[in-house]
Design brief:
With about 140 residues, the chain is mostly helical. It is built from four helices and no strands.
């Protein structure tokens, strides 16, 4: 029975940080849209802006999911990145946008950056050594 509870907890962590990833991705995409419409960012760079937004959102979500996942840090971060990609893909189909030619790049961007966030969060952080003076 503990495995069911653990899987349920992992699913909640993935859902929670997928929502965080999507929120951050949409904020960055909105900023990129404002920059493109203002003429600051060329239209040719919009694909790079989408990849950057997805990568930043997935990295953040994967990092936080790995910190909260317990023993399954890398699978939680990978599932977060993949679910971000799936939700963005479904939203693209629901709003009648043609599927992007760069779907594979978006998938790789989401999953690899979420895994990088999971690896970053999994890495043990060393404590700073305390400074000792001669007179103590």
């Amino acid at each position: 029975m503990p495995q069911k509870d653990e899987a349920k907890g992992l699913f909640r962590v993935v859902l929670k940080y997928t929502a965080l990833s999507l929120l951050l991705t949409l904020v960055i995409l909105a900023i990129a849209a404002i920059l493109v419409s203002g003429g600051i960012l060329p239209i040719g760079q919009s694909v790079a802006a989408v990849l950057l937004a997805v990568a930043a959102g997935a990295f953040t979500g994967g990092m936080f999911a790995a910190r909260r996942a317990g023993t399954h840090k890398l699978p939680a971060s990978m599932m977060t990145g993949f679910s971000v990609f799936l939700i963005l893909l479904i939203a693209g189909f629901l709003f009648s946008f043609p599927p992007a030619r760069h779907t594979v790049l978006v998938l790789l961007s989401a999953v690899v950056s979420a895994l990088a966030g999971g690896i970053y969060a999994r890495r043990p952080h060393r404590k700073q050594p305390t400074k000792r003076s001669f007179f103590k």
